[in-house]
Write a structure and sequence with these properties.
alpha/beta, two-stranded antiparallel sheet, globular, disordered N terminus
């Protein structure tokens, strides 16, 4: 080949859909790196390899949950103490959702999540736990019948939304707030077909609702109709009725 072609090869490199130019050109080819037996194992920690792990988590999650009947995701604190009023409310909600014909999906951990799974199992329903890899996580609670553990929060969140017809949100901390606002954002932006979001515990959630109304909406950061995206109640029957009515279940 002539020199112009040789210069072009050095200045521009195409690796599948990726284009590299000038100093970003890499030596060798993708096949060469694949078939080369020499080198260290750092490649298993690179971003392209992580994509395969992410893909595998989606495949495993979809495969495990694809045949679930109508389900409700129940969120709440992992720190809720067993036997407390909040814990017992979670048990009652889990039972009531099963009796209304739903499977129950939680984060699979202790506290409120365990309570909802326990209620679902005691009512002989389908009790699902979607766990997450954390340095302090205790693993899936013993009341989970179908469990999937995830490395990545965003994959886990997809499963919560994809396989649920609604959310019931018990008192919780930052993780619960994250899941709540993710759901609200998806509904508000119409990224998902609208589904019911019920906040259980008026005393716990009223301060947040007041802040949304008196600060966020008042300053024009959200609209008044956004406050209609969720319901708040202290009554288990009302909570179940809300998700049942809006899902047409």
């Amino acid at each position: 080949m002539g020199n112009p072609e040789g210069l072009r090869a050095l200045e521009e490199q195409r690796l599948g859909p990726v284009l590299r130019r000038r100093e970003q050109v890499q030596p060798g080819t993708t096949d060469q790196r694949l078939l080369d037996t020499e080198g260290d194992s750092e490649w298993v920690h690179t971003d392209p390899w992580r994509v395969m792990r992410i893909q595998s988590e989606f495949v495993e999650g979809f495969g495990a949950l694809a045949e679930l009947p109508s389900a409700i995701s129940v969120f709440g604190s992992a720190r809720t103490v067993a036997g407390s009023p909040e814990y017992e409310a979670g048990v009652t909600i889990g039972k009531a959702l099963v009796e209304a014909g739903f499977a129950v999906i939680t984060g699979g951990g202790p506290g409120s999540m365990e309570a909802a799974n326990k209620g679902a199992r005691e009512a002989r329903g389908i009790s699902v736990g979607l766990g997450i890899e954390l340095p302090f996580e205790q693993g899936l609670n013993p009341h989970v019948d179908i469990g999937v553990n995830f490395r990545y929060f965003f994959v886990r969140k997809t499963m919560f939304v994809k396989y649920a017809q609604g959310f019931v949100v018990l008192p919780g901390g930052l993780g619960t707030l994250d899941e709540l606002f993710e759901a609200l954002t998806l509904v508000q932006t119409r990224k998902v077909t609208r589904f019911p979001i019920v906040l259980f515990g008026t005393e716990y959630w009223s301060g947040l609702v007041d802040w949304l109304r008196n600060t966020v909406v008042a300053q024009g950061k959200a609209s008044e109709r956004d406050l209609l995206l969720f319901h708040i109640t202290d009554d288990v029957e009302e909570a179940v009725a809300m998700v049942t009515k809006e899902t047409g279940h």
